[in-house]
Design brief:
Elements: H1 2-23, E1 30-37, H2 43-57, E2 63-66, E3 81-90, H3 93-106, E4 117-123, E5 126-131, E6 134-138, E7 141-143, H4 154-157, E8 160-170, H5 175-181, E9 187-190, E10 196-200, E11 206-213, H6 222-233, E12 242-253, E13 259-263, E14 266-270, H7 277-291, H8 296-301, H9 312-332
Parallel strand pairs: 1-9, 7-14
Antiparallel strand pairs: 1-3, 2-3, 4-5, 5-6, 8-11, 8-12, 9-10, 10-11, 13-14
Helix pairs in contact: 1-7
Bound molecules: flavin-adenine dinucleotide.
Length: 333
């Protein structure tokens, strides 16, 4: 199973490059991911991961970058070292979603926006879905509702916990100023437990994200909440305005592995636990194959044990939050 997951993640990394080419749309894909260490004592874990990837997965593409060379990759004193993965990358997720939607419609699919599924039931060998706009009858139903599944399917809802995350973008910078921040144009995540993630956009803004809130809420002032974190990475941007800020929820599973499966003709995919765009690509492929009668990969995923969060929807966030607080303290030490 671990080897299969590894292979599928590499397949998905190639698939997000290929999808726009196959369907003729643009999503600003840019190759390269830097995994940067904030704390000196975490530098070794980068080297250990590089070794592990080579030994266990025969993946020898990871490049270790020490502090001296880091400014030519990401110009921030906050980091002690980094690992560069050429198969990672970043893209504009809205353009990806719109491009895929167009491809679905071109293939004859119908997308019903602003239509909330309220409940579903099996009627004979078909599924009847009740929505706020009417009923839909289908041969197979795929539940891909992220952290918003709970009312539609409470049993699946108990297996994921909504976690808030939010991002900002600065005003557009002069191209040279933007490029000087991340000369490699890679996306960057740090290896803290509560991580920062950032990249440049095609129009030369810095997009900077932080996570995460286990208690579900979003800061009233997202820009104000992110600003100190952004300034600690790039103090030179103190004069730069934050123009946009937004947030949403991701869904984490107890074992932090994707939760895919089926009951009869009802399929589900959830619990990407912060890995997100690549595993959504995998689950789309795996569930589509299963619907077409090729269930091998779905059967493999269904061997992963997924449990309910203890305490249910009301208590689980409060039980997880102290754990996160403890790891946040460790991040600071
Ligand atoms: C601020 C932020 C930053 C992020 N940054 C990254 C990143 O850097 N890298 C990364 O890989 N991922 C990132 N993600 C996660 C990513 O955007 C997706 O949330 C994740 O890939 C999960 O995808 P999904 O398809 O399961 O869910 P979503 O993309 O959330 O889609 C679920 C859809 O289901 C719909 N839905 C839910 N319930 C119902 C219902 N009852 N009836 C009808 N429709 C329903 C929702 O409206 C939504 O459109 C970020 C998320 C946020 C919020």
């Amino acid at each position: 199973m671990p080897q299969k997951l590894w292979d599928l993640m590499r397949w998905a990394a190639a698939e997000v490059v290929d999808l726009p080419l196959r369907h003729g749309f643009e999503c600003d894909y840019q190759a390269g991911h830097l995994w940067a260490s904030v704390l000196p004592r975490h530098v070794n874990s980068l080297k250990e991961w590089q070794q592990h990837a080579a030994d266990k997965w025969n993946y020898k593409n990871l490049q270790f970058i020490d502090k001296r060379d880091l400014p030519t990759w990401v110009a921030s004193d906050r980091y002690q070292a980094a690992l560069f993965d050429p198969e990672g990358g970043h893209l504009n997720p809205l353009k990806l979603a719109l491009g895929l939607a167009k491809a679905i419609e071109a293939a004859g699919g119908v997308i019903l926006e602003q239509t909330r599924a309220l409940s579903y039931k099996e009627v004979g060998n078909r599924i009847q879905v009740s929505t706020d706009k009417g009923q839909i009858h289908c041969d197979a139903l795929v539940l891909a509702c992220n952290a918003y599944i709970d009312q539609l399917d409470p049993a699946l809802g108990r297996r994921v916990l909504p976690v808030g995350t939010f991002v900002v973008t600065t005003e557009a910078l002069r191209p040279e100023r933007a490029q000087a921040l991340i000369p490699s144009n890679a996306c960057v995540t740090d290896n803290q437990f509560v991580l920062d993630y950032f990249r440049l956009t095609k129009d030369n803004r810095l997009l900077f994200g932080v996570g995460c809130t286990y208690l579900g809420g979003m800061p009233a002032d997202i820009a104000g909440a992110v600003r100190p974190r952004l300034d600690s990475v790039f103090p030179s941007l103190k004069d730069v305005q934050i123009e946009y800020g937004w947030g949403g929820h991701i869904d984490i599973s107890m074992n932090r592995a994707p939760d895919m499966g089926s009951r009869g003709n009802v399929y589900w995919m959830q619990g990407y636990s912060g890995h997100d765009v690549l595993p959504t690509c995998i689950s789309g492929r795996v569930v589509a194959d299963a619907i077409m009668g090729r269930r091998e990969n779905l059967n493999l995923f269904m061997q992963l044990q997924h449990r309910d969060f203890p305490g249910g929807k009301l208590l689980a966030p409060w039980l997880e939050a102290p754990g996160k607080f403890w790891y946040r303290l460790r991040d600071a030490m």
